[in-house]
Amino acid sequence: QPHGALLVLDPADLSIVQASQNTAAVLDIEASDLVGRFLQSFVSADALPEMVRAADQAEGTLNPLRIRLLTPAGARALTGLFRPSKGCILLELEAFAESAVAGGVPGGLY
Known about the structure:
Oligomer: single chain
Distance between the termini: 23 Å
Order of helices and strands: EEHHHEEE
């Protein structure tokens, strides 16, 4: 995914089981350092419920969210799209694009 990053999540606990090699360019974190970590360690506690809801509703819907992930370089505004795939959840992350998302949620989500 040349213009963003892809995270593969375990739907049971939102742990990262795989990450695309270009995560360092998007998140300032190497893919190998992401595997085994939990998505909730990168978002504020008040944003997590909305992300869990989006992940749960991933089946058959397009649900882009404006997400603020906390990275070593500071907060990053991204557009996130959750998609189910073979027993996992794919989280596609791209630089935030206003046209991709309507509405917002405070905290770690905009």
